[in-house]
Amino acid sequence: MSSFGRSLAFGAVLAVCLTGAARARDTQAEDLSASDIPVEQLKDLSLEELANLTVTSVSKRPEPLSQAAASVFVITADDIRRSGATSLPEVLRLAPNLEVARINASQYAITARGMNSAESSNKLLVLVNGRSVYEPIGSGVLWQQVDVPMSNIARIEVVSGPGGTLWGANAVNGVINVITKSARETQGLSLDAGGGPQDRNATVTYGGAVGTTTYRATISAFDRSGLDRAPGDTSEDGFRGLQGNARLDGGGTDLSYSLVGNLYNNRIDVGGGNFWGGDLMGRFAKVLANGSTLDVQATVARDDRSALDTHERRDTYNLAVQDALNVGRHQLVFGGEARTWREYFLSTNAFHFAKPQATISLGSLFAQDVVTLRPDLKLTAGLKLEYNNYSGLDWMPNLRVAWTPNDTSMVWGAASRAVRTPNRIERELEAKPFLAPSPDFQSETLWAFEAGYRAQPTAQSSFSVTAFYDVYDDLRSDEFVSMHPISFPLVLRNGVKGESYGIEAWGAFDVASWWRLKAGLSTLQRDFRDKPGHDDISALQIAGVDPAYQAQLRSSMQLSPSVDLDLALRRVGRVTTARDVENAPAYTEADARLAWRVREGLELSLSGFNLLNDHHLEINDSSTTPVRTIPRTVYVGLRWGF
């Protein structure tokens, strides 16, 4: 289809939607009186209610979103439902401050504020209920091992910018915290299922109670077809998996506890790999006599992955303790964490570790104070000290100021330091005679400077704007052991530095009580280069491949008390390397979802994804599999229960 044809098709769809919306407005009173479904159960949160959503990822204590001095975007459970997305990476496209690029059926490159690719997207910390899913062998997140049933997610807090003071090393460019619903919120039996040419999914959940203790058990399965291939490419990358999840919640106002367990087994077609494992997390919170809140969280996990010539097994043990209390004008939070990874990695190809077994440990202490200087002015100061057995002691300070001139607006600014600690590959990997271990590789560092403005000018509108300037140093470089003359082996050094800057902005506008528009924009400019005395032969691979801009527009309409229509349009600019070499062309895509609530607790939906093009490329990463493109597809869904 030509670009004119695509534009015409999208315009026709939009015109039909607007006509339907106008019809809904004219007959709204009739529909409301005829419906058996309470309107209150169908209506989105108001913009004021959204502004007062409680978030915890910014300061590690509950606070209204409107008072969080950071670039934070919240994806609600209703946002997830209305998007029609069937996997966590696809849900993350809703956040304007994230860059999401699909590599193949199972792999994604996801980042905030640039440096994206399968190799370089290692500066974004991802948490599930506060449990880190960071992997220490190569840094970053293996999205093939992160399964969260969509219907169990309460919200996702996306913080762009450093979070090292509270969350530790590797929370450099941002933090994603996926927070699931408590067992109390998921009582009874529910089913979330659907399918289409690309995705088939099914999730069954049952929740109950024994006295004051509630529980939930979930079984979910998915099957994703391989993406579009180039002519002559016969390889397969289809992805399928099975997960079991159980949760227990109990306690009351002064004492609460949770126990969450997961098991998963995922497989990529035709030798692409098998991923299995599980985790068990216990959390205990107690309000002490002095009014402070003591929070203890312990996790044990095993993750195993295997392919044709590699096998990795990782055991994780983590204990985190924190206390939060108010003393006069001070809101204090402090604590510590200890984590141990026991890694086993065996390779039958040239790249290997001299010792397959390794133990990686870290320990940290942190403290942060929010001081109310006057009713409209708050100062936040914090520091984390973290020790790991690769690079030793790292320090991560944070200074923020927030001014609230009135009840509906806030101006804030921040300066922070964050680090990404060395991973096992950077310290120990070798491939004689071409690559030698790099025992001197140290932490990569970032100094970030941010300024933001958040406001709700009217009851029908809200927006947030953030400008950032990031200064990176000691980034990874691939260098010959000697440049004069050039001689092998290669070693990894801290030989790259650079700066990046840009703007993140988003807003919402209620056109009418039944129609909400949301828009988002992010821009990014980069300047990376070799440090004096260094020569990175990888052409600044660590800087990743990124678009100069991304934009999205989303429309959510309640055509009647039982019918919703959601449209999404996104534009992603040309993806380039740090040296302005094109990696993927710019593209424009649209999604749509029509949902009908047959009765209370039962919803049918029809979704279309990537409607403007037969297929499009999001990132060219031939280091993982042959290049894949994303096809147009549809999905029919059913939700029954809570």
Largest sheet: 22 strands, antiparallel, barrel
SS-derived structural category:
mainly beta
Helix content: under 10%
Low-confidence stretches: 1-43
What amount of the residues lies in strands? over 45%
Number of E-type strands? 39
Radius of gyration: 24 Å
Quaternary state of the chains: single chain
What general outline do the C-alpha atoms trace?
globular
State the end-to-end distance.
41 Å
Total count of helical runs of at least 4 residues: 8
Folded structure, characterized:
- The chain is mainly beta and 642 residues long.
- Helix content is 9%, strand content 57%.
- It has eight helices and 39 strands.
- The strands form seven sheets. It has a 22-stranded antiparallel barrel.
- The longest helix is centred in the N-terminal third of the chain and has 24 residues, at 3-26.
- It is globular and about 75 Å long.
- Residues 1-43 have low confidence and may be disordered.
Question: What's the SSE blueprint?
Answer:
Blueprint: H1 3-26, H2 28-34, H3 39-42, H4 47-51, E1 54-55, E2 63-64, E3 71-76, H5 77-83, H6 88-91, E4 99-102, E5 108-111, E6 124-128, E7 131-132, E8 153-160, H7 164-167, E9 174-180, E10 188-195, E11 199-210, E12 213-224, E13 239-251, E14 255-268, E15 273-287, E16 293-306, E17 310-327, E18 330-347, E19 352-353, E20 357-374, E21 377-388, E22 392-406, E23 409-420, H8 424-428, E24 429-430, E25 444-458, E26 461-483, E27 486-512, E28 515-523, E29 525-530, E30 546-547, E31 549-560, E32 563-572, E33 575-576, E34 582-584, E35 587-599, E36 602-609, E37 615-616, E38 630-631, E39 633-640
Parallel strand pairs: 6-9
Antiparallel strand pairs: 1-2, 3-8, 4-5, 6-7, 8-9, 10-11, 10-39, 11-12, 12-13, 13-14, 14-15, 15-16, 16-17, 17-18, 18-20, 19-24, 20-21, 21-22, 22-23, 23-25, 25-26, 26-27, 27-28, 27-29, 28-31, 30-33, 31-32, 32-35, 33-34, 35-36, 36-39, 37-38
